[in-house]
Specification:
Number of strands: 16
Oligomer: single chain
Helix content: 25-40%
CATH class: Alpha Beta
Distance between the termini: 23 Å
Strand order of the largest sheet: 4-3-14-13-12-11-10-9
Mean pLDDT: 79
């Protein structure tokens, strides 16, 4: 018996059979990519409290042939910046700090090249202008050894202070958007000093515990538990990222989570259980257009350029991650990958955050159905994650081109509009 679910759109009531979700995800293409070792990880689609689709591919541990499962924990790379932003905003709610506060008094003699006018809000919105220890415009690749300090020493927040020091201010604070990893390390340093609580403990207490996340943590890469996926640098072989990243994630990313926990996270966030609804609204209020990404940015969240989707994403050596949540339809599409190319398209050396498709200009806003097209291009996967609100002629043509049939396009239209 096929389970069916319903949702409202413009006064119409539509029915989507869960067994038909394959029509919207092009599962054959997804399976083909995984069989060619181009994708290893987990893909999930949730709407409300219902899991519409999940599929696991490849190995969490290749040498021992331990398979990935939908319960596997994956690194999220820069997706962890969302957790940092939420922890900081909990301190704002408690009155310990304000987003307009200048950070210089909290840094003291540390990081002297940071402009005295840089505020907490500048750091949250990537507009601080501070020099970045991992500049995403730099000429480097995920397989390079980028860190100055031995990676095993970068386990606690204060250890990162020397790592991010020595980079001159690039432009006046607030002048424009420039993605900055180091800025989120500074936020972690400030959060520790203001609260008196170690950053990792603060995130667990103020974000994970409040959201009911039981499988989310800052794991050490040199002692991963049995349910965590190792991060692989290449489509073949057993070489992992353990010497390429800090041994433990920090303010700019690196928290591990599972598909179920991430679903709980989105539900808790939108229900106001992590921070108050007015704080959520402030976090996802569009502040800057980012044409190079085809997106906008709030504070700790990427945003669709015109629609209601809010996004977490990250890419690193051995990690590729993206989760898009549509506020109107409560639909979430998540891709976890435990290889550098797992969910990534484009030049790895050009950016750490994965562009899941060269064809996308950001996720199209959704109405409860999702099309996930995964295509193999040499050693990497190109994944388009789209949730559609309006099927204009151009989008219909694109859907038909990607699915290869008018039948699947008709099914998309039927699920969206009921006709």
């Amino acid at each position: 018996m096929r389970r069916a679910t319903t949702y409202e759109r413009s006064g119409r009531r539509s029915v989507l059979c869960v067994d038909d979700i394959a029509e919207f995800l092009d599962v054959k293409a997804l399976d083909a990519a995984a069989s060619g070792k181009a994708f290893t990880g987990v893909v999930t689609v949730d709407r409300g409290d219902e899991r519409l689709f999940d599929r696991a591919y490849g190995f969490a541990h290749r040498a021992l042939e331990v398979p990935n499962t939908t319960a596997t924990r994956f690194g999220t790379a820069s997706g962890g910046k969302t957790f940092t932003a939420l922890a900081v905003m909990r301190l704002v709610e408690d009155g310990a700090i304000a987003i307009g506060d200048r950070v210089r008094p909290l840094l003291g003699d540390d990081l002297p090249l940071i402009d005295s006018d840089v505020t907490v809000e500048h750091l949250l919105t990537h507009t601080s202008g501070i020099g970045d220890y991992l500049d995403e415009d730099g000429d480097w690749s995920d397989v390079d050894y980028l860190l100055k300090a031995p990676v095993h020493t970068l386990a606690e927040t204060e250890a990162f202070v020397a790592e991010i020091d020595g980079h001159p201010q690039l432009f006046p604070p607030g002048d424009h958007f420039k993605y900055c990893n180091g800025g989120y390390i500074v936020l972690a340093v400030i959060a520790e000093r203001v609260s008196g609580v170690p950053y990792h403990d603060l995130v667990m207490r103020e974000v994970c515990d409040r959201a009911g996340l039981t499988n989310t943590a800052f794991l050490r890469s040199d002692e991963l538990p049995a349910d965590a996926a190792m991060g692989y640098l290449f489509a073949d072989g057993n070489r992992t990222n353990v010497l390429h990243l800090p041994v433990r994630g920090n303010g700019d990313g690196g928290i591990y989570t599972s598909a179920d926990d991430l679903h709980r996270f989105w539900r808790a966030l939108t229900a106001g259980r992590i921070v108050a609804p007015e704080t959520v609204a402030e976090l996802i209020r569009p502040r800057y257009d980012v044409p190079s990404e085809g997106l906008r940015y709030g504070m700790g969240f990427w945003l669709h350029p015109t629609g209601p989707a809010i996004i977490m994403e990250g890419g690193d050596a051995g990690v590729s991650f993206r989760s898009s949540h549509n506020l109107q339809t409560e639909t979430t599409v998540t891709v976890f990958g435990n290889s550098s190319d797992g969910a990534m398209a484009g030049d790895r050396g050009a950016e750490r955050r994965p562009r899941l498709s060269k064809i996308r200009s950001g996720p199209v806003p959704g109405a409860g159905t999702c099309i996930v097209i995964i295509r193999c291009h040499s050693a990497c996967v190109e994944a388009a994650v789209r949730t559609t609100l309006a099927l204009d002629d151009d989008l219909v043509a694109e859907a038909q081109r990607l699915t290869g049939t008018t039948e699947k396009t008709a099914l998309v239209r039927q699920a969206l509009y009921g006709h």
